[in-house]
């Protein structure tokens, strides 16, 4: 079975003091990583390959830095890496990113396409479902369980409130992977170093039959106008002091509030 | 007059809250756009639900067909795209839910319409839709403009509060020929496994997030829950990593809880988590990131390392309780 996994390199803002500069945030000091959802998608692909054989191609849209997450995928067990880039793609919205991926993937051989259900930076959740529509194949997103049998995928989609939807779709298909579907393997620095010897195929817009007008802001139907820090509606009363002092004060507060 | 479509979301015969939230938000948008609000209800045997929608919309557009009984993104897409082509609504709103996320992007691509997802606010500027959505895990708001004259947006659950409706929309039933979708089959629903602890019944909840770092550290917070006479719950990453079972997860894809005390430890406070605990009596957060969104929900906070705070807190509570 031949699997394509779409991955994205994203900044980790979880512990960062985010600073807005124009239509972006300051990223110089931020650590970058593979999008968490995509990491689960790569692991799922590797587990399927271990079971059924075949190949895994990791593909990413982005500048040279994106090689980092492609290499990580190679280190986890992927066979090929493909990166698509042109300066014109900056400002592409989610649907346009799907368009770029579709243009490249339609010429490739695949039985299954895995993506993260969404990305941790922009959180749009557009790519898997839009990509499937463009390729004219079935899809399912927010998938927390995947079984392949007889050219079909039996998937569990995570709904709200702990409920799951079970469905069956024909392959090839695009599956948007939700976190928690598996336990992504550890990737060693050595593994990544070894994978860095493998050549990553670079595709430009010409190679995939698109023009600069098809991508970026020009090719997108949505445009980012402005960023702002969300207004704060409520702020917790912060209990000051060193950890021991703060903990003691908190215990007293809990007593006063009648919860102890 | 142009219409705003709001796709009613329902499961097992019940309309979901997000439907009424979107209809409430759509009324304001309709005023700004000089449009009317149409609730679009696709399903099988949906008369009762249609009646419930009447007061929230100027029109309830119903397609009632056995093929629409269970949610199937591809079948819903076919019916909805036909309705959008026929009626040309200026805006179509869909919940940013497991249902909407599986449907909206394909619908937008099929129709060639702009799509903004997970919107928390909707505005009209010169007849165009301008939305607000959150990026970088809620740390930044992005204002996004949609091009053209027809738009699709998915709306975050809880983004709008439900305003009682005073309208009396006419119920209009249309029949649409629905092609079979042999390549996608709904097999059923499955409940997550139920363990021995029901966190929704607890008065005191100690809830732990990603910052607990390792399964080895779970006993530390379990002990705190024990001295409080409460239960241990968690946010999504802890379940993803298999450190605690799924039935302990608080949030939109887990459980909704309203304990007397919710003690959030090492939880950043993503909106999906907050949706599951914001109505708790007293909320206390311990997190070393002072900018963590959890501090905008909590009543009290300690900005510090949980591994330094929790052991002392446990001893102090033990002392007080004697």
Explain this structure.
The complex is a heterodimer of chains A (260) and B (322). Chain A has seven helices and 15 strands. Chain A is α/β, with parallel strands linked by helices. In chain A, the strands form three sheets. In chain A, strands 11-10-9-12-8-1-6-7-13 form a nine-stranded mixed beta sheet, with helices on both faces. A two-stranded antiparallel ribbon of chain A has the order 2-5. A two-stranded antiparallel sheet of chain A has the order 3-4. In chain A, strand 9 and strand 10 form a beta hairpin. Chain B contains nine helices and 17 strands. By secondary structure, chain B is an alpha/beta fold. In chain B, the strands form three sheets. In chain B, strands 9-8-7-10-6-1-4-5-11 form a nine-stranded mixed beta sheet, with helices on both faces. A five-stranded parallel beta sheet of chain B has the order 14-13-15-16-17. The longest helix of chain B is centred in the first third of the chain and has 17 residues, at 17-33. The radius of gyration of chain B is 22 Å and the shape is elongated. The model of chain B has no long low-confidence stretch (mean pLDDT 95). At the A-B interface, helix 3, helix 4, strand 9, strand 10 and strand 11 of A face helix 4, helix 5, strand 7, strand 8 and strand 9 of B. Strand 14 of chain A pairs antiparallel with strand 9 (140-146) of chain B.
